[in-house]
Amino acid sequence: MIFPKKSLGQNFLIDKNIIKKIVNLTDINNKDVIEIGPGKGELTDQILSNKPKSLQIIEKDSNLFKILKLKYSNNKIIKIYNSDILKFNLEQITNKGSIIFGNLPYNISSQILVKIIKFRNWPPRYSNLVFMFQKELGDKILGKYSSKNYGRLSIITHYRLKLFNKFLVSPNSFFPRPKINSVVLHLVPKYDKNFKIKNIDNLEKVTNILFSNKRKMIKKSIEKILNINNLKKIEEIDLSSRPSNLKPEIYYRITELYEKV
Ligand code: SAM
Predict the structure, then answer these.
(1) Where along the chain do its domains lie?
(2) For residues 257 and 233, is the Cβ–Cβ distance under 8 A?
(3) CATH number of 200-260
(4) Per CATH, is 6-189 categorized as 3.40.50.150?
Protein backbone atom coordinates (compact mmCIF):
# COMPACT_ATOMS: atom_id res chain seq x y z
CA MET A 1 0.00 0.00 0.00
CA ILE A 2 1.40 3.44 -0.96
CA PHE A 3 0.47 6.51 1.06
CA PRO A 4 1.20 9.56 -1.12
CA LYS A 5 3.67 11.97 0.49
CA LYS A 6 2.62 15.59 0.25
CA SER A 7 6.18 16.74 1.03
CA LEU A 8 7.35 15.07 -2.20
CA GLY A 9 4.50 16.48 -4.29
CA GLN A 10 3.05 13.02 -4.86
CA ASN A 11 -0.08 13.52 -6.93
CA PHE A 12 -0.19 10.53 -9.23
CA LEU A 13 -1.73 10.69 -12.69
CA ILE A 14 -4.71 8.36 -13.06
CA ASP A 15 -6.27 9.63 -16.29
CA LYS A 16 -5.04 7.31 -19.07
CA ASN A 17 -6.02 9.77 -21.83
CA ILE A 18 -3.93 12.53 -20.29
CA ILE A 19 -1.00 10.14 -19.85
CA LYS A 20 -1.20 9.23 -23.56
CA LYS A 21 -1.60 12.86 -24.58
CA ILE A 22 1.57 13.81 -22.68
CA VAL A 23 3.69 11.02 -24.12
CA ASN A 24 2.35 11.52 -27.66
CA LEU A 25 3.46 15.17 -27.74
CA THR A 26 6.79 13.99 -29.17
CA ASP A 27 7.91 11.00 -31.17
CA ILE A 28 9.98 8.94 -28.75
CA ASN A 29 10.36 5.84 -30.88
CA ASN A 30 14.01 4.75 -30.72
CA LYS A 31 15.00 7.91 -28.77
CA ASP A 32 16.82 8.27 -25.46
CA VAL A 33 14.32 9.32 -22.82
CA ILE A 34 14.67 10.60 -19.25
CA GLU A 35 11.85 10.89 -16.73
CA ILE A 36 12.01 12.97 -13.54
CA GLY A 37 9.88 11.74 -10.62
CA PRO A 38 8.38 8.54 -12.09
CA GLY A 39 6.33 7.79 -8.96
CA LYS A 40 4.71 4.39 -9.40
CA GLY A 41 5.44 4.40 -13.12
CA GLU A 42 2.24 5.81 -14.60
CA LEU A 43 3.97 7.86 -17.32
CA THR A 44 6.87 5.42 -17.41
CA ASP A 45 4.64 2.56 -18.65
CA GLN A 46 3.29 4.70 -21.46
CA ILE A 47 6.78 5.88 -22.42
CA LEU A 48 7.93 2.25 -22.58
CA SER A 49 5.01 1.21 -24.77
CA ASN A 50 6.10 3.86 -27.32
CA LYS A 51 9.42 1.99 -27.68
CA PRO A 52 12.25 4.38 -26.74
CA LYS A 53 15.87 3.33 -27.27
CA SER A 54 16.65 3.85 -23.57
CA LEU A 55 14.87 5.19 -20.51
CA GLN A 56 16.52 6.65 -17.40
CA ILE A 57 14.32 7.57 -14.45
CA ILE A 58 15.17 9.51 -11.29
CA GLU A 59 13.04 9.05 -8.15
CA LYS A 60 13.85 10.45 -4.70
CA ASP A 61 11.43 8.35 -2.65
CA SER A 62 13.23 5.15 -1.57
CA ASN A 63 9.98 3.18 -1.23
CA LEU A 64 8.89 4.07 -4.73
CA PHE A 65 12.40 3.31 -5.96
CA LYS A 66 12.12 -0.24 -4.57
CA ILE A 67 8.70 -0.69 -6.18
CA LEU A 68 10.03 0.56 -9.53
CA LYS A 69 13.10 -1.72 -9.30
CA LEU A 70 10.82 -4.70 -8.84
CA LYS A 71 8.30 -3.62 -11.44
CA TYR A 72 10.93 -3.18 -14.16
CA SER A 73 13.36 -5.92 -13.07
CA ASN A 74 13.07 -7.66 -16.46
CA ASN A 75 13.33 -4.53 -18.54
CA LYS A 76 16.75 -4.14 -20.18
CA ILE A 77 16.46 -0.58 -21.48
CA ILE A 78 15.51 1.10 -18.21
CA LYS A 79 17.94 2.51 -15.65
CA ILE A 80 16.57 3.65 -12.29
CA TYR A 81 18.31 6.16 -10.02
CA ASN A 82 17.31 6.72 -6.39
CA SER A 83 18.32 10.40 -6.16
CA ASP A 84 17.21 13.92 -5.49
CA ILE A 85 16.97 15.54 -8.92
CA LEU A 86 18.26 18.85 -7.54
CA LYS A 87 21.56 17.17 -6.55
CA PHE A 88 21.74 14.81 -9.50
CA ASN A 89 24.03 15.42 -12.50
CA LEU A 90 21.27 15.42 -15.11
CA GLU A 91 23.42 17.03 -17.79
CA GLN A 92 25.83 14.11 -17.64
CA ILE A 93 23.21 11.44 -18.37
CA THR A 94 21.63 13.48 -21.19
CA ASN A 95 22.46 12.18 -24.64
CA LYS A 96 22.23 13.93 -28.01
CA GLY A 97 18.54 14.18 -28.84
CA SER A 98 17.31 13.03 -25.40
CA ILE A 99 13.71 13.83 -24.51
CA ILE A 100 13.03 14.73 -20.88
CA PHE A 101 9.62 14.15 -19.30
CA GLY A 102 8.29 14.91 -15.84
CA ASN A 103 5.07 15.33 -13.99
CA LEU A 104 7.12 17.47 -11.65
CA PRO A 105 6.78 17.70 -7.85
CA TYR A 106 5.08 21.10 -7.49
CA ASN A 107 7.18 22.38 -4.60
CA ILE A 108 10.46 22.25 -6.58
CA SER A 109 9.32 22.41 -10.20
CA SER A 110 10.67 25.90 -10.91
CA GLN A 111 14.05 24.89 -9.45
CA ILE A 112 14.10 21.82 -11.71
CA LEU A 113 13.31 23.93 -14.76
CA VAL A 114 15.99 26.50 -13.92
CA LYS A 115 18.53 23.70 -13.42
CA ILE A 116 17.76 22.41 -16.92
CA ILE A 117 17.85 25.89 -18.45
CA LYS A 118 21.27 26.44 -16.87
CA PHE A 119 22.98 23.42 -18.44
CA ARG A 120 26.61 24.38 -19.05
CA ASN A 121 26.73 23.33 -22.69
CA TRP A 122 24.46 25.26 -25.00
CA PRO A 123 22.77 24.31 -27.27
CA PRO A 124 22.12 21.41 -24.91
CA ARG A 125 22.07 17.75 -25.85
CA TYR A 126 18.36 17.38 -25.06
CA SER A 127 15.93 18.07 -27.90
CA ASN A 128 12.58 18.32 -26.10
CA LEU A 129 11.21 18.92 -22.60
CA VAL A 130 7.70 17.84 -21.63
CA PHE A 131 6.81 18.97 -18.11
CA MET A 132 3.68 19.28 -16.02
CA PHE A 133 3.50 22.37 -13.79
CA GLN A 134 1.02 24.02 -11.53
CA LYS A 135 -1.00 26.24 -13.92
CA GLU A 136 -0.01 29.46 -12.11
CA LEU A 137 3.66 28.62 -12.40
CA GLY A 138 3.20 27.72 -16.08
CA ASP A 139 1.80 31.24 -16.62
CA LYS A 140 4.88 32.72 -14.96
CA ILE A 141 7.24 30.60 -17.04
CA LEU A 142 5.59 31.80 -20.26
CA GLY A 143 4.81 35.35 -19.03
CA LYS A 144 5.13 37.70 -22.02
CA TYR A 145 6.59 41.18 -21.77
CA SER A 146 4.00 43.67 -20.47
CA SER A 147 1.74 40.92 -19.11
CA LYS A 148 1.20 40.48 -15.37
CA ASN A 149 3.14 37.21 -15.41
CA TYR A 150 6.28 38.74 -16.92
CA GLY A 151 9.26 38.44 -14.58
CA ARG A 152 12.55 36.74 -13.71
CA LEU A 153 11.41 33.25 -14.60
CA SER A 154 10.01 34.13 -18.02
CA ILE A 155 13.04 36.29 -18.90
CA ILE A 156 15.42 33.41 -18.17
CA THR A 157 13.17 30.83 -19.82
CA HIS A 158 12.72 32.87 -23.02
CA TYR A 159 16.47 33.25 -23.32
CA ARG A 160 16.93 29.52 -23.80
CA LEU A 161 13.61 27.79 -24.45
CA LYS A 162 10.72 28.12 -26.86
CA LEU A 163 7.17 26.94 -26.25
CA PHE A 164 6.10 24.29 -28.73
CA ASN A 165 2.78 23.19 -27.30
CA LYS A 166 0.70 23.26 -24.11
CA PHE A 167 -2.53 21.97 -22.63
CA LEU A 168 -4.38 22.21 -19.33
CA VAL A 169 -5.00 19.29 -16.98
CA SER A 170 -7.84 19.23 -14.43
CA PRO A 171 -7.36 18.17 -10.78
CA ASN A 172 -9.61 15.16 -11.51
CA SER A 173 -6.80 13.54 -13.50
CA PHE A 174 -4.79 12.90 -10.31
CA PHE A 175 -4.90 10.96 -7.10
CA PRO A 176 -4.82 12.51 -4.57
CA ARG A 177 -6.74 15.32 -6.24
CA PRO A 178 -4.72 18.58 -6.00
CA LYS A 179 -6.48 21.88 -5.27
CA ILE A 180 -5.00 23.58 -8.31
CA ASN A 181 -5.13 23.22 -12.10
CA SER A 182 -2.08 21.99 -13.96
CA VAL A 183 -0.56 22.65 -17.33
CA VAL A 184 1.70 20.55 -19.56
CA LEU A 185 4.33 22.54 -21.42
CA HIS A 186 6.26 21.16 -24.35
CA LEU A 187 9.44 23.25 -24.63
CA VAL A 188 12.36 23.08 -27.04
CA PRO A 189 15.82 24.66 -26.65
CA LYS A 190 16.77 27.69 -28.70
CA TYR A 191 20.04 29.40 -29.47
CA ASP A 192 19.87 33.13 -30.01
CA LYS A 193 23.02 34.31 -31.79
CA ASN A 194 22.16 37.99 -31.16
CA PHE A 195 23.23 37.73 -27.55
CA LYS A 196 26.49 36.45 -26.13
CA ILE A 197 25.96 35.86 -22.44
CA LYS A 198 28.94 33.77 -21.32
CA ASN A 199 27.50 32.47 -18.09
CA ILE A 200 23.75 32.10 -17.65
CA ASP A 201 24.20 32.50 -13.86
CA ASN A 202 24.85 36.17 -14.58
CA LEU A 203 21.45 36.60 -16.25
CA GLU A 204 19.93 35.05 -13.15
CA LYS A 205 21.93 37.44 -10.94
CA VAL A 206 20.97 40.52 -12.96
CA THR A 207 17.25 39.65 -12.98
CA ASN A 208 17.33 38.82 -9.26
CA ILE A 209 18.90 42.16 -8.39
CA LEU A 210 16.63 44.22 -10.62
CA PHE A 211 13.45 42.45 -9.58
CA SER A 212 14.37 42.50 -5.88
CA ASN A 213 12.25 45.60 -5.61
CA LYS A 214 9.52 45.58 -8.24
CA ARG A 215 8.25 49.09 -7.51
CA LYS A 216 11.61 50.84 -7.52
CA MET A 217 13.12 52.50 -10.55
CA ILE A 218 15.86 50.29 -11.94
CA LYS A 219 18.45 53.06 -11.52
CA LYS A 220 18.74 52.29 -7.80
CA SER A 221 19.30 48.56 -8.08
CA ILE A 222 21.41 48.62 -11.20
CA GLU A 223 23.99 50.79 -9.44
CA LYS A 224 24.76 47.78 -7.25
CA ILE A 225 26.26 45.91 -10.19
CA LEU A 226 27.19 48.44 -12.87
CA ASN A 227 28.43 51.94 -13.23
CA ILE A 228 25.58 53.94 -14.72
CA ASN A 229 27.89 55.38 -17.40
CA ASN A 230 28.32 51.92 -18.87
CA LEU A 231 24.61 51.72 -19.53
CA LYS A 232 24.78 54.46 -22.15
CA LYS A 233 25.79 51.70 -24.53
CA ILE A 234 22.24 50.39 -24.35
CA GLU A 235 20.31 53.02 -26.28
CA GLU A 236 16.77 52.04 -25.40
CA ILE A 237 17.27 51.86 -21.66
CA ASP A 238 15.25 54.21 -19.49
CA LEU A 239 16.65 54.25 -15.95
CA SER A 240 13.44 55.50 -14.46
CA SER A 241 11.56 52.35 -15.58
CA ARG A 242 10.32 49.70 -13.17
CA PRO A 243 11.86 46.24 -13.68
CA SER A 244 8.74 44.89 -15.39
CA ASN A 245 8.89 47.66 -18.00
CA LEU A 246 12.20 46.48 -19.44
CA LYS A 247 12.02 44.10 -22.39
CA PRO A 248 13.84 40.75 -22.09
CA GLU A 249 16.40 41.93 -24.68
CA ILE A 250 17.44 44.77 -22.34
CA TYR A 251 18.10 42.25 -19.57
CA TYR A 252 20.27 40.25 -21.97
CA ARG A 253 22.22 43.40 -22.93
CA ILE A 254 22.68 44.42 -19.28
CA THR A 255 24.03 40.94 -18.54
CA GLU A 256 26.48 41.15 -21.46
CA LEU A 257 27.73 44.49 -20.15
CA TYR A 258 27.96 43.14 -16.61
CA GLU A 259 30.18 40.35 -17.90
CA LYS A 260 32.44 42.77 -19.77
CA VAL A 261 33.19 45.24 -17.00
N1 SAM B 1 5.25 10.43 -12.60
C2 SAM B 1 4.21 10.11 -11.64
C3 SAM B 1 2.87 10.49 -12.22
O4 SAM B 1 2.85 11.14 -13.26
O5 SAM B 1 1.86 10.13 -11.65
C6 SAM B 1 4.44 10.85 -10.30
C7 SAM B 1 4.43 12.35 -10.36
S8 SAM B 1 4.42 13.14 -8.78
C9 SAM B 1 3.64 14.67 -9.20
C10 SAM B 1 6.11 13.67 -8.51
C11 SAM B 1 7.11 12.57 -8.29
O12 SAM B 1 8.39 13.14 -8.09
C13 SAM B 1 6.84 11.71 -7.07
O14 SAM B 1 7.00 10.36 -7.41
C15 SAM B 1 7.89 12.14 -6.06
O16 SAM B 1 8.27 11.14 -5.15
C17 SAM B 1 9.03 12.51 -6.97
N18 SAM B 1 9.97 13.51 -6.39
C19 SAM B 1 9.70 14.48 -5.48
N20 SAM B 1 10.78 15.20 -5.21
C21 SAM B 1 11.80 14.68 -5.95
C22 SAM B 1 13.17 14.98 -6.11
N23 SAM B 1 13.75 15.99 -5.43
N24 SAM B 1 13.92 14.24 -6.96
C25 SAM B 1 13.37 13.22 -7.66
N26 SAM B 1 12.06 12.88 -7.56
C27 SAM B 1 11.27 13.59 -6.73
Answers:
(1) 6-189, 200-260
(2) yes
(3) 1.10.8.100
(4) yes
Closest CA to 42 of 12, 10, 5: 12
pTM here?
A: 0.96
* Sequence-separated (6 or more) residues with CB below 8 Å from residue 187: 128, 129, 130, 131, 157, 161, 162, 163, 164
| Atom of ligand 1 lying closest to residue 174 CA | 5
Kindly give the distance from the C-alpha atom of residue 228 to the centroid of ligand 1, in angstroms, as a whole number.
45
Q: Which atom of ligand 1 is closest in space to residue 86's alpha carbon?
A: 23
The residue to mutate among 20, 21, 85, having the most atoms of ligand 1 within 8 angstroms of its beta carbon, is 85
Distance 10 CA to ligand 1 centre (A): 6
Please report how many Cα atoms fall inside a 13 Å half-sphere around the Cα of residue 93, on the Cβ side.
20
Contact predicate 103/43, CB 8 Å: yes
From the CA of 59, how far away is ligand 1's center (Å)? 6
Cis before 123 (ω within 30): yes
Per-residue model confidence (pLDDT) at position 193: 85
At 158-199, the pLDDT tens digits run 999 999 999 999 999 999 999 999 999 999 999 888 899 999
Residue 98: DSSP 8-state: -
Residues at CB less than 6 angstroms from ligand 1: 8-13, 37-39, 42-43, 58-61, 64, 84-86, 103, 105, 108
